[in-house]
Amino acid sequence: MARTIFCEYLKQEAEGLDFQLYPGEIGKRIFDSISKPAWAEWIKKQTMLVNEKKLNMMNPEHRKQLETEMVSFLFEGKEVHIEGYVPVGEK
């Protein structure tokens, strides 16, 4: 059975993640209050960020940078700024 949570990103009830996908306290917070649709949205942004900034996930600095962006995006409603990327409808 799917878990329903109040998603901090969507500001509404939504289907929760099936398991904790990120380690530590932040991972627990994501599991408790970020929905599947919100996480999928973050994964798209993360992929663009990694590609655009040529981030190396073996580099702790790069991982920290990505984590900061993730927290800002999911919990603070901040849009991820990606050079040269213009969201559809904003051209």
TrEMBL record:
User: Which is one GO molecular function term here?
Assistant: iron ion binding
Q: Give the record's GO biological process terms.
A: cellular response to oxidative stress
Q: What keywords are assigned to this protein? A: Iron
Q: Which domain of life is it from?
A: Bacteria
Q: What transmembrane ranges does the database entry give?
A: none
Mention any one GO cellular component term assigned to this protein in its UniProt record.
cytosol
One Pfam family this chain carries? Answer: Iron_traffic
Q: HAMAP family, per this entry?
A: Fe_traffic_YggX
The free-text function statement in the UniProt record for this protein reads: Could be a mediator in iron transactions between iron acquisition and iron-requiring processes, such as synthesis and/or repair of Fe-S clusters in biosynthetic enzymes. Necessary to maintain high levels of aconitase under oxidative stress.
Give the protein family. Answer: Belongs to the Fe(2+)-trafficking protein family.
Q: What is this protein called?
A: Probable Fe(2+)-trafficking protein
What is the originating organism of this protein? Answer: Frederiksenia canicola
